[in-house]
Request: fold
Amino acid sequence: MFTMDIMEDKVIARHLFEKYCSNPKNWNFVISTSSMRDGFFDAMVSNTDEVWQLKLDSIYKPLPLVVGTKVDVDSTRMERSISPDAVPFGFRKLDPPVIMDILKKVTEEQEARMNVHNTGADFDDQLYSILRSLKTVKPTSGNNYVYGPFIFTNTSSISLNDYHKHVSEKLAMKLRDTLRTKYSSYG
Reply:
């Protein structure tokens, strides 16, 4: 039918990081439960030039096993499926005054939670505003950064046609093989 270059963990992370560093603008990272009911999580990573379909074994551990491949999807389709108010994914430099401002707001939020009427929405709005005001940049050593946001949804950010279902099945098979190799007792 067609061939695809499936990358794993560190290779795909390095590749996507290098792509990000060459142009840190307009990235999106959307994670959802798998529509294929394979027990894994799906992710779509996109920028203005390309879209990557990923399969993750878990979102509940710091270093999940990941496999992925570049897919043939119009990247503007991904952008349209995400809220226009969403903050783009990326690294944002946090200078000490910004960090102090965030810590001050966290402290104020904790004090305000003693007030029964406070829901925490004010802090979320303030933090979102701070992140929105910071441009995404290429990270360099010696500086402080925050990265994200990762958008979590219950459904895939694109409707899966036969092509994407096939890609999802191939990624799930590759991830299962990786899990079997890494953990001999894995089914």
